[in-house]
Amino acid sequence: MLIPHDTRIALDTVVDLVNTAPESEPGDGLADTGALYAFAERHLISGVGVLGEKDLRAVQDVRSRFAEIFAAPDARTAADLVNGLVAAAGTTPQLTNHDGYDWHVHYFAPDASIADHLAADCGMALAFIVVAGEQERLRRCEAPDCRRAFVDLSRNRSRRYCSSRTCGNRLHVAAYRARRKEAAG
């Protein structure tokens, strides 16, 4: 699946945002405005200005709505959720080229709040996944003790874990040890 750089960046951002929720990891990764500033800096979200409790609550709400999209049972449900999220953000598509990237589209208004920025850009990235008929690529880790979100960009849609280095490896090692123990009798 060919994904333009701006869509890939937005997909990485939405996955990281969803994974800040308490159900994905211990504690809330966006518990205060300091964490929100750190998130914005980590994802190079420009023009955030001064962030307050209202911004934090709005981003937490957008995060919950993105989590619903990852849990959507079918493309119709995902499309309805994406449509609602993007419409509420008041998208304003604009062509831009910056930071060494060629022309691409930003979907948020230049003075948008951080919540609207995330809802518009990340919502449109998820819209492209649904339009491509690839909604099943929006997944949760299958490790029993992990619920982290990820986008399966493998060629054959076979990725099962948020990270093959952590969850995948841990489960493969456990299965290997169980087989060895059973064989040893």
From TrEMBL:
SUPFAM superfamilies given in the database record: Jann2411-like
Species the sequence originates in: Streptomyces clavifer
Domain Zinc finger CGNR: start-end pairs: 137-180
Listed name of the protein: RNA-binding Zn ribbon-like protein
Database matches in Pfam families: ABATE, zf-CGNR
